[in-house]
Amino acid sequence: QVQLVESGGGLVHAGGSLRLSCAASGNIFIINTMAWYRQAPGKQRELVADITSGDNSNYADSVKCRFTISRDNAKNTMYLQMNSLKPEGTEVYYCNADVILLRDRAIRYRYWGQGTQVTVSS
């Protein structure tokens, strides 16, 4: 019913930048909070940043002042600008969205994207 597609991952050297995008499509009435999570091999998935439909954002301490989350509600798209990347190896970044569907406005659903890989080399 709802698809989240991430893009923008890749290989970058430490200190570099990447911009991730997450485009939502499908039977969407409203998207509430959207978020970026990341997961390194063998570790738990962790919240990187989230943003409400009113543009209130929240960041993990480890990325504050380096990452910026934003969204374009008209395009149902969220972004993550990542600067001053640290050499943390390979992580997969996942998009998450809290969605109210057109067909059932009484229930909120959470959806995940398939992930986009980010590798930061030293």
Architecture overview:
The structure is a single chain. With 122 residues, the chain is an all-beta fold. 0% of the residues lie in helices and 62% in strands. It has strands spanning 2-7, 10-13, 18-26, 28-39, 46-51, 57-59, 67-72, 77-82, 89-101, 108-112, 116-121. Strands 2, 4, 5, 6, 9, 10 and 11 form a 7-stranded mixed sheet that branches. The chain is elongated. It starts with a strand and ends with a strand.
The main pleated sheet reads as: 7 strands, mixed
Query: What class, by secondary structure content?
Result: mainly beta
- Mean pLDDT, to the nearest integer, reads 96
Strand portion: over 45%
Number of helices: 0
What sequence of helices (H) and strands (E) makes up the elements? EEEEEEEEEEE
- Helix percentage range: under 10%
Short description:
With 122 residues, the chain is an all-beta fold. It has strands spanning 2-7, 10-13, 18-26, 28-39, 46-51, 57-59, 67-72, 77-82, 89-101, 108-112, 116-121.
